[in-house]
């Protein structure tokens, strides 16, 4: 991934629902993604599985992609504490339809056109470059939805990565359009950007 990856030693901070939902609620993310119940979707930079747990009940398969295996370890431990193992999970504690994938967004282990959708929450700045966005285009089938919410370079920098490591909504939209996505929405908000696109 790009400039800045979240420190896995601080993973517990990613479970603060009040803080996370302040910038992107479950309802907003699901509205942007508009998943089909049978969809195959990837969470790009899934971290502790915070949003994976929100999206998984609404899709067929969720690939939780993170470059840091320590984040997957945290997700497993968290899920085990939540006693989800008895729900038919393939890995102890994880929702049954969640598949943990240790990979960089620039080198995804999926076939061409494998995904019906993908999303990233506060991670676009970690993987954003032309090669990674082209890789996303490769694995997203025509018609697939991409939803991105991230820290914006137009924000005040009150939290999140340094402003120098962020993008503005228009920059993210241009990068996606250059890779073959049709951008449906590119909004600047108080501290974040929101971009929705279709392959």
TrEMBL record:
Task: Tell me where in this chain the Methyltransferase type domain is found.
Answer: 43-147
- The answer on whether this UniProt entry bears the keyword Methyltransferase reads yes
Gene Ontology MF annotations: S-adenosylmethionine-dependent methyltransferase activity
User: What Gene3D superfamilies does the database record attribute to this sequence?
Assistant: Vaccinia Virus protein VP39
What are the GO BP annotations of this UniProt entry?
methylation
A Pfam family per the record: Methyltransf_11
Against InterPro entries, the record matches this protein to: Methyltransf_11, SAM-dependent_MTases_sf, UbiE/COQ5_MeTrFase_CS
Keywords in alphabetical order: Methyltransferase, S-adenosyl-L-methionine, Transferase, Ubiquinone
Q: What is this protein called?
A: SAM-dependent methyltransferase
Q: Which organism is it from?
A: Halarchaeum rubridurum
